[in-house]
Design a protein that fits this description.
The strands form two sheets. Strands 8-9-10-7-11-12-13 form a seven-stranded mixed sheet, with helices on one face. The protein is built from nine helices and 13 strands. The protein is of the alpha/beta class.
Length: about 325
C-alpha cells in the first residue's frame, strides 16, 4: 500500500509515526506547504520524494491513497483533487469548515466510488471504544456527556509552538470531535442545539470561548465547553454519565467516576487512536468496504455544526 502524505505539520508526523507500525504500508511521497519543512520531514521519515505540488505527488507511480493533514481551509479542495486523481482519501478532522464543502466531498465520493474517510479519532481511541462496545451490548445507556476542550492559544501557533499559516476554529475543528462522538455514542442525530460564544479576538478573528448544548430525541444531553484562553492542563476531557456508571476519558486513558483506572490495553491492537484510524482506512481499501468514520457517516456531524453556527449568529 503506497501512501501520499499531504501536509508536513504536527499531525502529519503523528500519522507517519502510526503508519510505521502498520505492515506492508509505505509512504512514498509527501506534499507539504513549505519547501524547507517538507524536505526536513521527508528526510526524518525516509520518504523518497517530496514536493509542494499535490498534483505532482499524486502522479507518482503506484500511489493508491492520500492522507490529508493540511490546513482546514484547503481540506475540501484537496480531498476532491485526490479523488479526481483516482486515489482513496483520508481527511483529517474537520473534512471542511462549512457544510456545503462537506457535501461536495460526499458527492464526489459517491460519483467515484472511492473510499473517503474522516479523521474522527475519538471513534478509535480505546477509551471511547470501550464505552461504545458496552453501549452497543446494552450494558450502558448514555445520559449526559460533559466535555471540556481547553487550550491556551492567544497567538496563532501550532501544537509544536511554531507559527501557523492558518487560523484554527473552536466550532468547526475542536467541537467537531465532540459533536460526532456524541451522535456516534448515542446512535442518534441531535434534535436540539444551543450555542454561546465570547468576544471575537481582534487579530485571530475567532471567538476564544464557546459553550455548546445538544440533546438527542431519546433525551441524552451533551454539555461542551471550549476555550483557547485556558492556562492550565490542555486537551479534551470527557465525562460519560450513564445509567450504569460514570466514566472519565482522557485521550487513551479511562477511569471510573471515582478515578479508578480501567484497563483498555486489550481493546485494540494499539492504544494510539491515530494509528487505529489509519489501520481502519487501509483495511477498508484492502477489503473494499465502507470504513468507520466514512465521509457519509460523519456528514450528520457537519450538519449539526452548521445548525450550531446559525445559532451563534
Amino acid at each position: 500500500m503506497k501512501i501520499c502524505m499531504v501536509g508536513q505539520g504536527a499531525f502529519a508526523k503523528k500519522h507517519l509515526d502510526g503508519l510505521k507500525r502498520i505492515p506492508d504500508v509505505e509512504v512514498v511521497t509527501i506534499a507539504g506547504g513549505s519547501a524547507d519543512s517538507t524536505a526536513a520531514v521527508a528526510q526524518k521519515y525516509g520518504i523518497p520524494h517530496w514536493t509542494t505540488n499535490l498534483a505532482e505527488a499524486l502522479a507518482r507511480t503506484n500511489v493508491e491513497a492520500a492522507i490529508i493533514t493540511s490546513p482546514t481551509q484547503v481540506h475540501a479542495e484537496q480531498a476532491i483533487q485526490v479523488m479526481r486523481a483516482g486515489k482513496h482519501v483520508h481527511i483529517e478532522i474537520p473534512i471542511a469548515d462549512n457544510l456545503a464543502d462537506a457535501e461536495r466531498i460526499l458527492a464526489v465520493q459517491k460519483e467515484t466510488g472511492l473510499i473517503a474517510m474522516a479523521g474522527h479519532t475519538r471513534r478509535f481511541n480505546p477509551s471511547h471504544q470501550w464505552i461504545h462496545s458496552r453501549i452497543v451490548k446494552g450494558e450502558l445507556k448514555l445520559q449526559h456527556l460533559v466535555v471540556q476542550t481547553f487550550f491556551f492559544r492567544r497567538t496563532n501557533m501550532n501544537a509544536e509552538g511554531k507559527p501557523r499559516s492558518w487560523t484554527d476554529h473552536l466550532l468547526w475543528h475542536h467541537a467537531c470531535h465532540t459533536v460526532d462522538l456524541f451522535q456516534y455514542q448515542t446512535g442518534q442525530t441531535v434534535s436540539e442545539v444551543q450555542a454561546l460564544q465570547g468576544p471575537v479576538h481582534p487579530e485571530l478573528k475567532i471567538a476564544m470561548d464557546m459553550s455548546i448544548g445538544m440533546k438527542t430525541p431519546a433525551g441524552a444531553v451533551c454539555t461542551l465547553s471550549l476555550s483557547s484562553n485556558n492556562e492550565g492542563p490542555l486537551g479534551t476531557f470527557f465525562r460519560y454519565i450513564c445509567d450504569n456508571g460514570t466514566y472519565i476519558a482522557r485521550y487513551d486513558e479511562l477511569l471510573d467516576g471515582n478515578d479508578k483506572p480501567i484497563d483498555v490495553s486489550k481493546v485494540a491492537v494499539s492504544k494510539d487512536g491515530i494509528e487505529l484510524q489509519d489501520r481502519e482506512f487501509i483495511s477498508a481499501i484492502r477489503e473494499k468496504r465502507e470504513p468507520n468514520a466514512s465521509v457519509a457517516q460523519v456528514l450528520p456531524a457537519m450538519r449539526t455544526l452548521d445548525r450550531l453556527e446559525k445559532a451563534l449568529r
